[in-house]
């Protein structure tokens, strides 16, 4: 008997700063084994999470995919490619489906649940704004009790509330076409980036049961999702703001009258100069030396850089906090904030988040993963593409028909044959 090879999954994130490709396989115990990882700088082909130079981005994607295959000595399975989506065109909406429980004993069945979900999913979208992802938000029995799973409970009416992420068709299709041209086949599915990040950092689901805010801060976009539920399958709210690391660099460029490229380097190397994103008491006693030319050097107080960064980031986090409060989900975050993305490692970013949200904050780390270098496993910027593999596994399993065990299948086939012979004998 030939040995069955494990399914290979590929996650692709086309971000503002770089394109990341991660290839992996799952062990029987659910542990993810990373086979190949690659990253290619976009160099302007992507702005604020949206592709602006398709030809250049496709060439960069092809290079990243080939390098991922080469580093892992593995071939990408084009039937299992999953793409992260981002950008200012993405929005979300909550939809409610309602059913009346018709059983005599008023016990809610699985069919009742599915009917309520189907009604909620049938939200009317404009043709140019298709849905990307559907997530259960909550179930409500008799308009009062909120539950994770209503099946088996007694009630007269069941409501299913779902959270739907949707976006601009042309922008979504651009990413799919890019993958199709590079791989020969479109991605199997797309997923909003912070959802994938949550699946990577909460493999065991305990923290999600308490409610967690996943905050994905990239170079051009900051995205967030509030996840909750014992099974880790409930998403209460998502959002995005087109502010990221490039905006920090732009603020520094305007405030310090320096070239944008030098200010981007300031943000990237902030830790090397012992700077933080919160003003420090001795910041005016320390200087950063910036070389602009052969005989052109500038000295800048660390405190000035910190003041500019703190102001922009504080404003960003306050906007997110106010949105969560307005949507009524801030109190659902019991575990705290998990930081992902390329900017998650900015010095003292966790402290700033704690102050604004008034709750614990931590840098996200992938869980249940083997293989790959320590640099990759500890890098917040790789959390989303790694999470895409977990999303892909779940997506594939949900869409595959459940196969009967061999002996059950034989008995079923014998039963069908016996029934057919019995019917034939009647004639």
Give a description of the structure.
This protein is of the alpha/beta class and 427 residues long. Helix content is 37%, strand content 27%. The chain has 12 helices and 19 strands. The strands form 5 sheets. A 6-stranded mixed beta sheet has the order 11-6-1-2-3-19, sandwiched between helices. A 5-stranded mixed beta sheet has the order 14-13-12-17-18, with helices on both faces. Strands 7-10-8-9 form a 4-stranded antiparallel beta sheet. The radius of gyration is 25 Å and the shape is globular.
Going by CATH, what is the homologous superfamily of the largest domain? ATPase, nucleotide binding domain
Helix content: 25-40%
If strands are numbered along the chain, what order do they take across the biggest sheet?
11-6-1-2-3-19
Mean pLDDT: 89
Low-confidence stretches: 402-427
Structural class: alpha/beta
Q: For this structure, what is the CATH class of the largest domain?
A: Alpha Beta
Largest β sheet strand count, sense and barrel closure: 6 strands, mixed
Please state roughly what percent of the residues sit in beta strands, choosing from under 5%, 5-15%, 15-25%, 25-35%, 35-45% or over 45%. Answer: 25-35%
Q: What's the number of structural domains? A: 3
Instruction: Predict the CATH topology of the largest domain.
Output: Nucleotidyltransferase, domain 5
Number of strands: 19
- CATH architecture level-2 label of the largest domain: 2-Layer Sandwich
Count the helices. How many? 12
